[in-house]
């Protein structure tokens, strides 16, 4: 069985994790600390990322198209 590698930038999981990393970084933004502690915010984002990554693993069968990145 030979697997064809695809570009990192065509990976849905890559882009989902980039967004998750940004959301995790936002948990340290002081105005958000009023809503919940940084630990709670990080746990919520982490749980959401887990669900998103498992869901992507189940449904992904091909690369995502990104208009601003060439072939």
Sum this structure up briefly.
The protein is mostly helical and 71 residues long.
Characterize the structure shown.
The structure is a single chain. The chain is mainly alpha-helical and 71 residues long. It has a domain at 36-60. The protein has two helices and no strands.
Keywords:
single chain, 71 residues, mainly alpha, 2 helices, elongated
Write the layout of secondary structure elements.
Layout: H1 12-26, H2 38-59
If you compute it from the alpha carbons, what radius of gyration comes out, rounded to the nearest whole angstrom? 16 Å
User: Which word captures the global form?
Assistant: elongated
- Structural class assignment: mainly alpha
- H and E string: HH
Residues in helices, as a percent range = 40-55%
Question: What is the first-to-last residue Cα distance?
Answer: 25 Å
Would you count the extended β strands for me?
Answer: 0
